[in-house]
Amino acid sequence: MKLLYADYILLMDEDFTVLKSGGVVFEKEIIEVSEDREYLKDKFSEAEVIFAPSNSCVMPGLINAHTHLEFSGNRTTLEYGSFLGWLDSVMEHREELVQACEDSCMELALAKMLKSGITSIGAISSLGRDLAVCAKTPQKVVFFNELIGSSPATADVLFADFSQRLENSQYRASPTLIPAIGIHSTYSAHPIVIQKALGLAKSQNLVVSAHFMESKSERRWIDDGKGEFQAFFKSYFNTETPVSDAKRFLDSFKGVQTVFTHCVHATDEEKQAIQAMGATIAHCPVSNRLLGVGKLDLESLKNLELPFAIATDGLSSNISLSLFDELRVALMMHYDLDLRLLAKDLLKGVTKVPAQALGLNSGEIQKGKDADLIVFTLPEQLHSIESLAYHIILHTQEVETVFINGEKSRWNF
Ligand SMILES: [Zn+2]
After folding, report:
1. How far is the C-alpha of 380 from the C-alpha of 336, rounded, in Å?
2. How many domains does the chain have?
3. Which domain holds residue 116?
4. Which residues are catalytic?
5. Distance from the CA of 313 to the center of ligand 1, in angstroms?
6. Whole-structure pTM over 0.85, yes or no?
7. Which residues sit with Cβ closer than 5 angstroms to ligand 1, an ion?
8. Measured in angstroms, how far is the CA atom of residue 236 from the centroid of ligand 1?
C-alpha cells in the first residue's frame, strides 16, 4: 500500500475538484483520497509514504483514445494541407510507411507516450502488426481491430481478415489488452460488413471506434456523391457512388458503445443522434489542422452535453503523440472560448471522458478506481488555484512518475 502526498491532487470529477496538500492511498486500486494528512497518516500508518516535490500535481493517468501506432514511422513522407492530398499520399506510400515501422518503432512511440503521462491508449489497428507490442506494453490498450472495405466484391475477404485479427487479439486479451472493433468510416466500409461487425460488438460487448465526418470532402461525397472523393473513388476503386448515407451509417451504431472520431463536419442533427446513443466524440486538433479539415465546434458539443475526448490520432497526421502537446494546440486553436473553462474541459477530455468512452475503470481519482496515476511538477508556485488547469497544460512536457494499477512504470529509451 502506498500513500502519495502532493501539493495538488486533481480528482477529475465533474466539478473539477482539486485537493490542496492532500494524499492518495492506493494499492492496485485507489483506497482513499483526503486533504487531511493527519487522518491519512494515522489510518494508513503501514503504507509506504511518498512525498512528491514542491509544486507537484497528481492526476489520473492520461488516456489517448485514438491513435494509429502502425503508422508511427511517418515524419516527412505524407503531404499535409488538404484531406484528399493527404489521402493520396497515404495511398502512394502506405506500404513503405508500414514497413518502416517495425516493433521497435512502435515500442518507442508507446514509451514516449508513457513518459508524457499516457497510461491508456485506444489503438486503431489496421493490420494487426501492433498486437504484439500492445500486448507487452505496461499501458492499458483498447485494441480496435479496424474493418475497411467498401466494395461488395471484396467485402467477404476483407471481413474474414478482420475477423481473424479480432480473434488474434481476443486470444491475447488480458486486463491490459482489451479487444475492440474499429469501423474505418462512412465512405470506406460497406453497410453489410458494418452490420456484421457491429453484431459482434453487441453480442460480445466490445467497444467500437469510427471516423465520422472528418472532412468537407467526406460530407459532399456521402451527401451528394460529388466533390473530390468522386475522382478518388473512380481512380482507386472504379466506383462512382457512395456505399452509405450518413443517417444509415450512424443508425447502425445504436446499442453499441462507440467513439466517433473527428466529426468536424457533422450536422447538429447528427451530433444530437450521437449524444442520444450515449456515444463520445474524439477530437484531434493537430490532425484536423494538418489535414486542412477545419475546426470542430466545441461549443455546439457543450450545448448538447455531448462529451468529447482529446486524442492525438497517429503520427501519420501529427508530430507528437503527447497529449500535453495536443492540449496546448487545442487551447490555442479554440481561441474564441474562455481559456479557464476550456482548460478544465480539455483535462477532462484526456481523463474522465475517454475512460468512460473506452469502458476503463480509471480517469478519476476516486475510491475503487484503478490506481493509474501520474506525478509532475509545475515550474513554480501558483498564486491562484483557478489558474491550475491552464498552467498544467502550458507547462507540462513530461511526467516524473507513472503508476499503473498501483505499480511504478518505467520507460526505457
Ligand atoms: Zn484516425
Report:
1. 28
2. 2
3. 62-358
4. 214
5. 5
6. yes
7. 313
8. 20
